[in-house]
Amino acid sequence: MVEHSDIRVVHRGGSKLNFREPLITSDSRFLLCASGQCVKVFSTSTEECIHDLRGHTDLVTGVLPKPSNHLQVYSCSADGTVRLWDYTDGILIKTYVIGYPIYSMYVSANHEGVIFIVTPMQSDKRSELFQLVAVDLPQSADQLVEARELSAVLSDVSSNPAASAFGRGGEYIVSAKPLQLEVYFFKKHKSYRFPLKADNKKGGKNTFTCVACHPKDDCVATGHEDGKIRLWRNFNHKKEYTYSTLHWHHNAVSSLCFTPEGTNLLSGGVESVLVQWRYKQESQRDFLPRLGAAITHITVSPDGALFCTSHSDNKITIIQSCVKVSAVIQGLVKGESVRTDFMVDPRSKAMVLNGKPGHLQFYSLQRDKLLYNLDIVQQEYIHELGLQQFEVVKAAFSASGNWLATVEERKQKDAELELHLKLWAFEQQTQSFVLNTTISAPHESWITALCFGLAADSQTTVLVSTSKDGHFKAWQLDARAHTDDEGPAWSCDFVGAYHGLVPERCCFSADGSLLAISFQEVVTVWTPASWELLTTLSQPPGAIRDLCFGQLSCSKYLLGTTAGNLLCCWNLLTCSLEWSTSMDVSLLLADPLSENMAAFCCQAGCTDLFVFKPSEPRPAFSHKAVCSGRVTRAVFAPREKMLESCEEGCQWLNHSQLYFLTQYMDLMTFSTKAEEDRLMASSKQLVIDDSVAMTPFYLLLGKHRQQQQENEDALSSLSAERTALPKGSAAIRELLQTPAHVLPSTSLLCSMFVQSLLISVTDSREEKEHAENEPESEKEEEDSEEEMESSTLRPKQPPL
Amino acid sequence: MASFKPTKIQVYPKLGEKVTQDTLYWKNYKAPVQIKEFGAITNIDFSPVAPHNYSVTAFTRIHIYGPFSQEPVKTFTRFKDSAYCGRFRSDGQLLVAGCEDSVVRLFDVSGKVALRLFKGHTKAVHVTDFISDRYQVLTGSDDYTCRLWDIPNATELTTYQEHTDYIRCGVTSKLNSDLFVTGSYDHTVKLFDARVDKSVITMDHGHPVESVLLYPSEGLLVSAGGRYVKVWDLLKGGQALVSLKNHHKTVTCLCLSSNGQRLLSASLDRHVKVYNTTNYKVVHNFDYPASILSLALAPDDESIVVGMTNSILSIKHRKSSEESKEISSKQRRRPSYRVFVKGKNYMPKQDDYLVSKPVKQHLTKYDKQLKKFNVSKALDTALETWTRMRKPEITVAVMKELERRGTLKNALAGRDEQGLSHLLNFLIGNLADPRFAPVLVTATEAILDIYQSVIGQSAVVDRQLLRLQELLEKEADYQQDLLEVLGMLDTIFASSLPRKEVPCSGVSRSNGLAQGEASASGPQLQAT
After folding, report:
1. Where's it found, cell-wise (chain A) (predicted)?
2. A139, A328, A533, B190: which could join B199 in a potential S-S bond, CB 3.0 to 4.6 Å?
3. What is the mean pLDDT of residues A559-584?
4. CATH at residue A208
5. What percent of chain B has pLDDT over 70?
6. pTM
7. The complex's ipTM?
8. Shortest Cα distance, chain A CAs vs residue B12, angstroms
9. Domain limits at A347?
């Protein structure tokens, strides 16, 4: 077993977008949000990710604008640094090393050069106590600065960034603890505390959940666990403070935000309704219901034109101030658990798994973007805590991608299990899946596995579902038993059982002629043509955990893993065990495009990967300690373009890429060094086109400029000789495209620039000849180049 | 943002009649035109030539109607008593009719006065028809005889005295000028050949025969009498093929559709049934307001004409293809369609700025309440009488939705006596329905939990609760019976099916052991 150092485990997208409050830039064109270890910059109008600000080595815990320069932002991270970025170009300007993990950060215009961070109490790093610390950012020209001037402001604060806020542009800071509101005035160096009782008379919970300060007035809004919002006034007195209560939410208020002018207060919670309260006329409210999932953060752009809400389903919604949704930025929805297997849609090559409650999400792996959500349950989602909802638990695609089968279930206490098996047909016209058949209660108990296969005549598909009730059922598209007003529907073709044992896994062979179903310790092999039991295989002890047929030339092999830590390979021609080895395989899967199989083995809290061919029991590739914990979800995703790697160890990556989900819901993949370099290069090519805002002024001037340009073009084409300026000169391009502040001194550049302008005589003649001979073809080439560039720039429309 | 998703109403397999090609065909008639005649309409006959006028025999008159006229185009009134069986000749020019006064009259369709009078019967003549050579007339009478008459000189040719009761129906062969069939109240149907002096075939119908009909091929004969319609094979010498009993009163009239594929029978039970002539299953059914005495189909099934005992003639015309389309499109239009369409067909010019208006989503009443989280009101709307009676699946779906939202108890609670009795009524009606049981059982349990404190306060509710209890006990017994039957069937099947050996189980074991890699214990599980 050779360790292949050039194949590495890479983090591949799908990280959280809703971890912290997003930030809308002052011109409302960009939205910045912390996403894993980087900060993502999105366009607010096109929803596209423009670039990532990479540099932090741990979770980014906050993004805030620099008050003195609206083109720069601070980001803080759990790695103990605060970084200053130029977000338009994606350049790291400065790194301030604090040295303690930072959980949240606050800045204010009143406190120039000071940021406030929340760090754990220094006495004990693992303690649950946090303090608010002011950090003086030293003025220095260096890139890396150590900020050591810390002064504690408040102790025992919450690590939740929503629980503290600056008021009146930084005159005071408000911090909420579970049952106490603390206001600290910077001028007086004095703090006031306002405690609340744990429960009020009606049994509501008074715990503070979030705080927001009015930008103009001395007013603090606090959200509470029981859904109440309290507006505190007069809090610069210990005794004479007052508060009024607003109540609309029925669950905890998770976020509060005032608009920049202070005319409106926005609040949101589990109900996923954005509520807009008029300040001082609180009986007037506007609602924006059905935002999809619980609201976790609300932000308002500095000019008040855009609101933006983060949702628990890893989504950011951008809302215009007239309470209309204008854009949705959706990340990979991972929820609490991934119930369905990972699948790859054979048509769109998107990864498919269950997403929002009752939905199946189609996620493009190449572009790290959610393509769309398919509503499976088709019921109004009730946003209420503790309510049992329908969930998509199983899904399967037919080989051609024409059919999709889904299973949804809901289990309530002391009620029967509700199960629905739904079959979706792909419709060419709308390019989406359309519900064809709903089968309520297809089985009496939970469905354990679901798989599609080709039927005996290899024309129609057959679906096999196995259930805990001890039966497996075959479903077929039935063209007979229906009238002409409806299309063909699916119906049960065969019900099978084996000695009352519970079937766990099922798998079709590559050509669809055999069906293997595992019943605890026994593997039964059936022929779908006549539904006859052909043979049984077993390798006790231990129930079968995973079952998989070999692909392509290895289709005569059936592989199974048992709970008794065995990986067995049966030869179906001889019905005998070909080989077996002892390993605790947590997941076994076959690459549909090659003979390779991947086995994730759990060993001592870590997962190892073995890639092998069923024909020889020696791994083609192995990777120790891929990640910690068990890997239970993985998928082979076919590549868009085949790799041509000759190295023996990397050949298994040629056809498809292996993606897997770690214990902590991180989506990882394996990639080679060369491939990564290529990716990096291509991402650098993706420069943002300088999209100028479409103002009337631009329309006027832009048209004029275009015309001018055209004229120039015409001129230049007339005098081809004169345009001998080396357009492609790297020096000029570098000079023009790199921002000024990162360039070396002008004196250095000058000579280089002038040199680049000089044209050697021979060169020019050659070029002249060239231009004379085939000026048209050259132009064409240029054109085609431009086209190619534009096509790479433009994102391909997802095939919906 | 995402709009409200309405409650999903589960579609259950339909238990009622299916929409078939036949229902579509036979439903494609307009609303009937009704014409009041002077008495019970005993016979209707279509002229075989275009424009296919039809004669209607009622009381002492015979009216001839045009295909679309509501007024008779011609009337024959020269009868002393009730006229019977006005029939056209195959060229549509002559009409023959019997009469209560035993005289058979022959009319020219264009004239008024009878051309010939055939006298000789001694009692009322109920059956008249032209022989297919067009020069002879067949009559059948209550004096038990049937006779053949020569038209040119109005003389009697033959008399057959084989029936022993009234002859009330008869038909002549269209293909052979010598054959005719008569049916009599003596329960027999007889086939006569004019070339011999007696009947050729006698068939016993078993009931007084009211109507006979020959298939176009004339190989099959249909007779109706009592509640039965019977089909006989003439080529096999009068062997009975099928006996149909689909009416619950006497069948009075028979008729074939123009293509010969469907047989229609009309009865005193006010129904017309349509049979498929290949499998003799009823494919469609018409209801009429009174007992039907006569029935006729226009050529190409253009109209169905039915005469009833209450002297009403009902004519249904087939919808033309455009009409049927138009009507369906009209139904889609609302009365205020023009208001909706106003300005919709305006084509925007190039520089126009389009302000799009959101399409308003139409929600049903209960969905509107559900959207507002008014759970009790939602259940109230779903329990409205019409919905509760006609569409219980809607009520059940709303209950299911409430249960999913965890608010079923809230919705069920707080009802007064009337509301509760509505609810209980609904449960009593639908609880035993296997389609609804899973939802309704939880609802019933919740109701019993909520209202157990008020039991005994209202007589109405108590009675309903008792009924519910009875229902449940009955259902439990029934289920137990079913399980017993299932158990019996299982034993029968188990003993009748041969036990199948599964191959290869032994092979896998031996190989597994031979490899030496299997665990020491070896596989214990074996397929048997």
Report:
1. Nucleus, Nucleolus
2. B190
3. 87
4. 2.130.10.10
5. 88
6. 0.66
7. 0.75
8. 10
9. 336-381+389-442
